[in-house]
Amino acid sequence: MKERHDDSKLPSNPEEVEDLRRVDSSANPLIAFTYIELKIITSNFRPDHVLGGGGFGSVYKGFISEELREGLPSLPVAVKVHDGDNSHQGHREWLK
């Protein structure tokens, strides 16, 4: 896995995340997490938390605890990490 620098706190596409935040939250169940939060959720992207992988990245099991952010329920999640080497394939797949 490639190490991120100071920009790791930013979403991969800030404009799209900002668009999602402007939408009424009752109509949009998506939640944007910071890189720091994703590290907490996945226990620092531990190798033994890898559920699988595909052509454009790995999937990690994780857990969101109520303490992470006010108003979020505790629940298990899967976190997809784009490997950055396969153009926009991951984004296209996610949009389907």
TrEMBL record:
Q: Which InterPro entries match?
A: Kinase-like_dom_sf, Plant_Ser_Thr_Prot_Kinase, Protein_kinase_ATP_BS
Q: What is this protein called?
A: Receptor-like protein kinase
Q: Which GO terms describe its molecular function?
A: ATP binding; kinase activity
Annotated spans, Disordered: 1-21
The organism's place on the tree of life at top rank = Eukaryota
Q: Which keywords appear in this protein's UniProt record, sorted alphabetically?
A: ATP-binding, Kinase, Nucleotide-binding, Receptor, Transferase
* Gene3D superfamilies reported in the protein's UniProt record: Phosphorylase Kinase, domain 1
- Any keyword Methyltransferase? no
Q: Which organism is it from?
A: Trifolium pratense (Red clover)
Chain residues that bind ATP: 80
